[in-house]
Design goal:
The protein has 279 residues and is an alpha+beta fold. The protein is 17% helix and 42% strand.
């Protein structure tokens, strides 16, 4: 386990560490999220193109990549990357549990080693072994990631997969929308959510990981989403951690915006974590 000069990494194995928008139209996506979130974007050389690092308040908070450059042209939308100690052993464990590898590990000298897999219920996720960069540099602040949630029609199977892969335990709660909701925990600390979809074979929806971003004023953010060519999908919904809204960006990728009142996850290096958004 490489702790990079003795400093403990901010993300424990199993914690969501990075989010990346995989899009066929990266210029359009960048313009949309600059205008919506107030992000600044810098470009780093990546193959024949650029990996776009999005910043909020001077901190790296997300990436945008052309799907043709990294993901074989598959438009995955938002991908949640989970921290792992050893990416090869994590992939071996995931495939033994029924996952499929979409993108073999790729080392980026300025960051670390990443791979993407699809879980047995159809959700795409990333694995990330930190090198020069641990992942997102801010959590919970305005414009930053504050929660990651998987929606699935097979909550028992999904919880079992992630329990075996990362050691998550699942606490079942009642969600703000009345659907069954579990908070996934590592060592008793909340790290992600699991929302049960009302879907049954043969019409079962594939599972999906969706990020939450904190916004200063939710109503203003929803107005901006719509004016920029996105869509208001579900909301506003009250939760103990703040009012939230499901939206689509201009390419119909789902994400949550929340006017965060109390933190869902600990910021890197911070000692205390709060409970999930639907409890």
């Amino acid at each position: 386990m490489n702790h990079h000069g003795g400093a403990a990494p901010p993300f424990a194995p199993g914690e969501p560490a990075w989010v990346e928008l995989c899009t066929a139209r990266p210029d359009q996506a960048e313009a949309f999220f600059r205008a919506l979130m107030g992000w600044t974007v810098r470009r780093e050389q990546f193959g024949q193109g650029a990996y776009r690092i999005c910043e909020a308040g001077g901190h790296d908070v997300a990436g945008i990549i052309d799907s043709a450059l990294l993901h074989a042209g598959r438009r995955h939308g938002w991908i949640t990357y989970f921290a792992v100690d050893d990416i090869e052993s994590a992939i071996d464990r995931a495939t033994s549990l029924g996952a499929t590898v979409l993108l073999e590990p790729r080392h980026l000298p300025a960051a670390g080693t990443g791979a993407t897999i699809v879980d047995p219920q159809g959700a795409v996720l990333g694995l990330y072994e930190a090198g020069a960069r641990a992942g997102v540099e801010a959590l919970n602040s305005i414009g930053s990631l504050c929660w990651n949630e998987i929606s699935t029609g097979d909550p028992a199977g999904t919880a079992a997969f992630y329990g075996a892969l990362f050691g998550f335990t699942a606490d079942l709660l009642r969600s703000s929308t009345g659907q069954p909701y579990s908070v996934l925990k590592l060592d008793g600390q909340p790290v992600a959510g699991l929302l049960t979809l009302e879907s049954a074979w043969p019409n079962e929806l594939p599972a999906r990981w969706v990020p939450y971003f904190n916004v200063a004023t939710l109503a203003d953010a929803i107005d901006r989403v719509v004016s920029l060519g996105g869509a208001s999908v579900i909301g506003p919904v009250s939760s103990p951690n703040g009012t939230l809204h499901v939206v689509h960006d201009s390419e119909e990728n789902p994400l949550y915006l929340i006017e965060l009142e109390s933190s869902l996850r600990t910021a890197p290096f911070a000692p205390a974590r709060q409970a999930g958004p639907h409890d």
